[in-house]
Structure formats: C-alpha cells, structure tokens
Amino acid sequence: MEIADWRAKIDGLDEQIVKLLCERAAAAAAIGELKAKTGGNIYEPDREQNVLAHVQSCNTGELPPAQLTVIYERIMDVMRGLQRRA
Ligand SMILES: O=C(O)C(=O)C[C@]1(C(=O)O)C=C[C@@H](O)C=C1
Questions:
Q1: Mean of the per-residue pLDDT values for the chain?
Q2: What cellular component terms from Gene Ontology apply here (predicted)?
Q3: What is the CA(76)–ligand 1 centre distance, in A?
C-alpha cells in the first residue's frame, strides 16, 4: 500500500476510535452523575489501576506497554474532567 492508502486506513480507524471514545465519555458521565448523587469520589485510583491492567491484557503487541498506559492515563484524566463539569 502507498502512504495515501495507509492514511485512508488511519482516517477510518480514527472514525471508530472517536465514536468509541464518545461512548466511553457517555459511560463515564453517567458514572459521574451517580457519584454526584451518592457522594462518591470522582478519582478512584484502584479502579484506574484495574482499567490499566485490563487494557494491557488487550494489547496485541503493537503498542509498547508504557505508551498504552500513557494513552489511558490521559483518557481517564479527560473522563475525570467531564465528570467534574457535570
Ligand atoms: O469507574 C469509575 O469510577 C469512573 O469514574 C470511570 C473512570 C474511567 O474513566 O475509567 C474515571 C475516573 C475514575 O478515577 C476511574 C475510572
């Protein structure tokens, strides 16, 4: 494949990634609303460690583990921000 073909593939993958990130954000927002009602903490470090372990178990090997952790730490940071704004 040429660069243009790989870029078209990346565009298609990005469409799926953004759709899934939006679904994840909606789930995190729903959790945030429940926490607001029950007085739960937005930041749950134990759960975040479980999420990080789970995504490592899904890694098929193309992403270095440390980089996958960086990506997910950032995602969860954004999710916490959404929960604080709700
Ligand atoms: O599971 C939760 O309690 C959430 O609020 C979701 C989530 C996440 O994005 O996965 C976000 C913030 C918490 O610190 C832990 C996990």
A1: 97
A2: cytoplasm
A3: 6
Pocket of ligand 1 (CB under 6 A): 28, 31, 43-44, 47-48, 51, 76, 79-80
Choose among 49, 42, 40: nearest CA to 81. 42
Give the residue, by CA position, lying nearest to ligand 1 atom 10.
76
Give Rg (Cα) of the chain: 16
CA distance 45 to 71: 16
Closest C-alpha to ligand 1, atom 6:
28
User: Which domains, ranges and CATH numbers included, belong to the chain?
Assistant: 3-85 (1.20.59.10)
